[in-house]
Specification:
Elements: H1 2-28, H2 40-49, H3 55-59, H4 62-74, H5 82-93, H6 98-118, H7 126-137, H8 147-157, H9 160-166, H10 169-182, E1 207-209, E2 214-216, H11 226-233, H12 238-256, E3 260-261, E4 270-272, E5 278-280, E6 287-288, H13 306-309, H14 318-333, H15 341-350, H16 361-370, H17 384-389, H18 399-403, H19 441-447, H20 457-473, H21 480-483, H22 490-494, E7 501-509, E8 515-524, E9 527-531, E10 539-542, E11 546-554, E12 557-564, E13 568-573, H23 577-605, H24 611-614
Antiparallel strand pairs: 1-2, 3-6, 4-5, 7-8, 7-13, 8-9, 9-10, 11-12, 12-13
Length: 628
């Protein structure tokens, strides 16, 4: 019966894996709905106040660059050849190997720099030319070779051309996309879920929060672990082991540079992705030694360093290098001769490992260095990770290529198989078995601003999805974009006036204040105007009529509450949190300034006429006829 359950678990797991492969593609084709172009007014204010409307901020975002490039190619008369030059340089900077950069740098020099020098049309400085020529003559091609040209290209674009872009429809489109990006809220639709016989799931998203739990979701490593593959593949050759050792060393280096000692390095904790590259997992025993070195004797017997076994002895990253030596020996030789943990600990503390004659001299030197019981003599304990990386055993290894995962793995996990003894080995995720984390108010302060910036993992994935097709192919038109054209040219009404901001909001209307009515609002220094579809005249509320501007909530949705003289209320709801923040700020600022101006006027003349407040040059209703 147990065997049948294991088979069913394996089948369920594999079916979930197959289903997950189709899910992201289906989700990627989902149409993104942009807000109306009128969102530009609110977004421009929002971005300006956060210093996000500079040339550098827009040009260095993928969406901003593509729209700026589109503007230069389609909407201005003068040619902008430096954009193509810029793209070539950026492609060059992404190249991994020096050979590729050497070849591409010559192509860029001949195609852009030398060509313009010969035609006497070179618009860049002599200093930039000399910089590139000097490096090319010495065959020095760092990724930053063309950086002086990047600076000068940007300087040539940030003036009049950029100003024209800000005034164009392409900038409006940029504001629409930024509104979508900044208003993204994670939900279950953002997860690609695998179900393993009803026992939880894995997702693409890196973190989420429930009411009382903080959930961390990690990448699914479906290639098994080195312990499993050691049992299936048999012992590894020196060349095969060198591949795994190199990638693991980079992982240890990353942790040690942050003063973290791993303390549980063993084959079972080295997972493989579907391509065969390694991930160090299970950091439950990892410890920060930046302020105080640990003394605890923790880890797995057979991989623990002598100083870890000696209770009361302080240690740091030294322990991981001994564990690395133990693990590499295990990959080369297989199982320990004894499984008695006390005997294993005794051997670790008192005996030197016997290395077989079949090991190469370089391999023997590496293992003898890593397995030194004396910390002061152990490889990696004085010179840290660079000392290990420079060992003769790794001669010829390009560590940048290791970091970029350019080396071919010796073992590619078979697809369509469960790379474990059975699916039950993968783990259980029952609610009862998962330790919940109750979040306190102090915790909320840490997580309330969980970032969704252009640098975050989720946002980068979203940007790739957008710029991969939808941005260029125009699949972003909202269903109301055509419908709202019947409302009229909203921006035209604001042109030439002292309008602070304009855009759509929902107004709580009808005699019983039970229905939300979508209206287009204009904010002026002394009044608020609005109108809806089919209305030919503007409605009006003057600043003098307003008593306070407050924040309230209706059905868990933040709203703006304007208290009106006579005990009436005026409730507004925005279509996104971003718009709420900006509308509330601008309304509050305008109301505050208007009150200051009125008080000054009253002090200077006793009583001033209300013409400036209630009789703007337009047709209007009074507050009493507005359903307030």
């Amino acid at each position: 019966m147990a065997d049948l359950e294991a088979v069913l678990a394996d089948v369920s797991y594999l079916m979930a894996m197959e289903k997950s492969k189709s899910t992201p593609a289906a989700r990627a084709s989902k149409k993104i709905i942009l807000p109306e172009p009128s969102i530009r007014s609110v977004m421009q204010k929002y971005l300006e106040e956060r210093d996000e409307l500079t040339f550098d901020k827009i040009f260095n975002q993928k969406i901003g660059f593509l729209l700026f490039k589109d503007f230069c190619l389609t909407e201005i008369d003068e040619a902008v050849p430096q954009l193509k030059f810029y793209e070539e340089i950026k492609d060059y900077e992404k190249l991994d190997s020096e050979e590729e950069r050497l070849c591409r740098s010559r192509q860029i020099y001949d195609g852009y720099i030398m060509k313009e020098l010969l035609s006497c049309s070179h618009a860049f400085s002599k200093k930039a030319v000399d910089h590139v020529q000097t490096h090319l003559a010495k065959k020095q091609v760092p990724p930053s070779l063309f950086q002086p040209y990047i600076v000068e290209i940007c300087d040539s674009l940030r003036g009049m051309i950029f100003q024209k872009f800000i005034e164009s429809d392409k900038f409006t489109r940029f504001c629409q996309w930024k509104n979508v990006e900044l208003n993204i809220h994670l939900s279950m639709n953002d997860f690609s879920v695998h179900r393993i016989i009803g026992r939880g799931g894995f997702g693409e998203v890196y973190g989420c929060r429930k009411d009382y739990k903080l959930c961390f979701i990690l990448d699914l490593m479906n290639g098994g672990d080195l312990h499993y593959h050691l049992s299936q593949h048999g012992v590894f050759s020196e060349k095969e082991m060198r591949f795994y050792a190199a990638e693991i060393i980079l992982g240890l280096e990353h942790m040690h540079n942050r003063f973290v000692v791993y303390r549980d390095l063993k084959p079972a904790n080295i997972l493989l992705d579907e391509h065969g590259h390694v991930r160090i997992s299970d950091l439950g025993l990892a410890c920060d030694f930046s302020k105080k070195k640990p003394h605890a004797s923790v880890g797995t017997h057979g991989y623990m360093a002598p100083e870890v076994l000696q209770k009361g002895t302080a240690y740091d990253s030294s322990a991981d290098w001994f564990s690395l030596g133990c693990m590499l020996f295990k990959l080369l030789r297989g199982q320990h001769k004894t499984k008695d943990k006390h005997e294993i600990d005794r051997m670790t503390l008192t005996m030197n490992v016997e290395l077989p004659d079949s090991f190469s001299v370089e391999l023997k030197g590496l293992l003898e260095g890593l397995l030194q019981r004396d910390v002061a003599k152990r490889l990696g304990c004085l010179g840290r990770a660079p000392e290990v990386k420079e060992h003769l055993f790794f001669k010829g290894i390009d560590w940048q290529q290791v970091y970029l995962q350019k080396y071919s793995p010796p073992l590619i996990p078979p697809r369509g198989e469960v790379n474990a003894a059975d699916a039950f080995d993968i783990g259980s995720f029952d609610e009862e078995d998962t330790k919940g984390i109750k979040l306190l108010d102090s915790d909320q302060e840490l997580y309330k601003n969980f970032p969704w910036s252009s640098q975050s993992a989720g946002s980068r994935r979203w940007l790739r999805r957008c710029t991969g097709g939808q941005l260029r192919h125009g699949q972003e038109r909202g269903p109301q974009e055509d419908q709202n054209k019947q409302l009229g040219h909203e921006e035209d009404y604001a042109l030439g006036k002292d309008c602070i901001m304009h855009g759509y909001m929902l107004k709580l209307g009808n005699p019983f204040l039970t229905q939300w009515q979508r209206r287009y609002f204009y904010l002026f220094p002394n009044r608020v105007e609005w109108r809806g579809e089919g209305e030919s005249r503007q409605n009006l509320l003057t600043m003098e009529q307003i008593v306070t501007v407050e924040e309230t909530q209706i059905k868990d949705k933040k709203c703006i509450l304007l208290r009106i003289k006579g005990g009436k209320q005026f409730v507004l709801q925005c279509e996104s949190d971003l718009e709420f923040v900006q509308w509330k700020k601008e309304l509050t600022d305008a109301f505050t300034e208007a009150q200051k101006l009125l008080r000054r006027a009253l002090r200077s003349s006793g009583r001033v006429g209300l013409g400036w407040w209630s009789s703007p040059n337009l047709l209007s209703h009074t507050a009493g006829s507005n359903g307030l």
